[in-house]
């Protein structure tokens, strides 16, 4: 039986999440990518709290440019919010997506914004 893209991504996502957990000293940067938008959160899994979040739907992110450029802006915006919240180092959770395209652009934007992976 053929496995759908969603099932494949969820299987990878569970495998990645076994190894990566967010703590107060090193929270997890979680990425969700839809067809139109991209969303990112910095999460402390021990407390169960989101410390910072950004998406391509926020007002600070311009509508101009392609989706990869928007993802880079989301990464920079998230890094800015995270630094205000006192977070400098994170562990990156790609959410079952390949580290390529928009996910990679978001990570590069977060690094440029000052986050350490």
Automatic annotation (TrEMBL):
GO terms for cellular component: ribosome. It comes from the Bacteria. Keywords: Ribonucleoprotein, Ribosomal protein, RNA-binding, rRNA-binding. Gene3D superfamilies: 3.30.420.100. The keyword RNA-binding applies. CDD domains: Ribosomal_L18_L5e (cd00432). Part of the 50S ribosomal subunit; part of the 5S rRNA/L5/L18/L25 subcomplex. Contacts the 5S and 23S rRNAs. Belongs to the universal ribosomal protein uL18 family. This is Large ribosomal subunit protein uL18. It comes from Salegentibacter maritimus.
